[in-house]
Known about the structure:
Number of domains: 2
CATH topology of the largest domain: hpI Integrase, Chain A
Order of helices and strands: HHHHHHHEEEEHHHHHH
Strand order of the largest sheet: 1-2-3-4
CATH class of the largest domain: Mainly Alpha
Helix content: 40-55%
Shape: globular
Amino acid sequence: MGERGKAEWAHAYLEQLRTQRKLSPHTLDAYRRDLAELAALSGETAWNALAQADLRRYAARLHGKALEPRSIARKLSSWRGFFDWLAGQTALAANPVQGVRAPKRAKTLPKALSVDDAVRLVSAPARLASSGPGAAPEPAELCNRAMFELLYSSGLRVSELAGLDLHYSKDALGWLEQGNADVTVLGKGGKRRTVPVGSAAMAAIAAWLAVRPAPADGSAALFTSARGSRVSARVVQLRLKAHGLATGAPSAVHPHMLRHSFASHVLQSSGDLRAVQDMLGHATIASTQVYTALDFQHLAQVYDQAHPRAKIK
C-alpha cells in the first residue's frame, strides 16, 4: 500500500470527507470512530489484505457484543465507503465490505406525536420558573416558542435549526427569508433546500425578533442562548425536553420527534410523498416511505373509531 500506514490512510480519507464532501464535525467524528474500531478489529493486517470473510467475522463479533443491528449496518456502510475511496488511491483487489450485511433488525417506526399533542406542545405558553402569574413572556420563552414552532412547522433537523442566521450571507449555513416565509438550510451531504414556514411559526419568530438581543459572538444567529451566543443543538434538545415535561407531553419529546410529526402530519393531509421527501431533504424516497406506515396507523385508528363494523361487540 505504499509508504502510508493504516492510520495515515484513515486520516487522508477523513480529510477528503471534510474538505470535499463538507461533512459536519459530528458526522466526521462518527466516521473517525468507525475507522478506529475497524483498525482495532483488524490489528496488524493491512487494509489491502482484508478479505470479505474478515469483515463478516468482525460484524459477527460486534453482534456478539450485543451491538444493535442498526449500529452494525452504519459501521459497515462507513467501512464500505472508506474502501471504495481507498480503491481509487492504491491497489485493492476488491472492496472487502461488499456483500457483507448486518444482522436483520426489527423494523421500528419513528415516534411521532398526534396532531393534537404536537399543536398543544408547540403552542403551550409554558412559563419559566422565574415568571410570575400574568408576567410578560421572558425573551428565553419567546425564543423557545419560536424554535419549537419552527421545528414542527418545517421539519428541520436540530442542527439545521441551530445553524440558521437572521438573513442570507455567503458564509451562512442557513437563513430565514421573512418576506417569503421560508428557511433555506444546509442538510446532510451538503445539500441545500428551502422549506416553507407556517404562519404560526412566523408569528412566533416575529415575537422573538422583537426582543432578540444582538448576539454576543458577533454572528447573525437567529436563535441565541442565555449567554448571547448561537444556540447549540444540545441546548435546543434540553429546552424542548423540559418544555415537554412542563406541558404534560405524553412522552419524552426531542427535536427529531417534531420532525417525524411534521412528516407524518403533512403526509396524512396531502398524501404527497415526493413533497415530503423534498421538504425533509431525504436523498432517496425510501427514507421517506417509513412515514407511509405511520400514515396507515393513523388511518387504521380512524377506521377503528368510525366504522360501525370495525370491531365485533
